[in-house]
Amino acid sequence: MRWKQFFTPVKLIDANQVRDLIKETDSHHMTILDVRQPNEYEEGHIPGATLIPLPQLDKRFHEIDPSKQTIVYCAIGGRSRIAAQFLAGNGFGKLINLSGGFKAWNGESAYGREKEGLELFSGNESPEKTLGLAYSLEQGLHDFYVTMEEKVNNNDAQQMFRKLSSVELIHQDRIYLEYMELTKNGVSKKTFVNTIVSDVMEGGLTTEEYIRMFNPDMTSPREITEIAMSIEAQALDLYFRAAKNASDERSRTFLLKIADEERIHLAELGKLMERI
Question: Do residues 137 and 200 make contact, with C-beta atoms less than 8 angstroms apart?
Answer without folding.
Answer: yes
